[in-house]
Amino acid sequence: MFSIRAVTRWLKPGGSYLAVNYLIPDKDGPPFGTTRQELWDRFSPRFDLLEEWVPRSYPNRTGLELMLWWRLKPGA
Fold first, then answer.
1. Which of 7, 15, 25, 56 is deepest in the core (most CB within 10 A)?
2. Is the previous residue joined to 55 through a cis bond, with omega within 30 degrees of 0?
3. Of the candidates 55, 52, 72, which has an alpha carbon nearest to the alpha carbon of residue 64?
4. Exposure of 62 by Cβ count < 10 A (0-12 exposed, 13-18 middle, 19+ buried)?
5. Tell me, what DSSP letter sits at residue 33?
6. What is the pTM for the complete model shown?
């Protein structure tokens, strides 16, 4: 998984980060899998979670994708 520090460098204070995350077993990807808990553990110290939803997707990926919209905390 990419570096959270890199994302914080790319965003202005209060900037948003939106991503589709693949909740699949980690393989040699891409795509690379993760869990909701891993995402929370990595992002929540520096970001506020604004919204979370399961996107409309292809039938073979239903329930395996998760959209998370984060906002960079002030001073993060």
1. 7
2. no
3. 55
4. exposed
5. P
6. 0.82
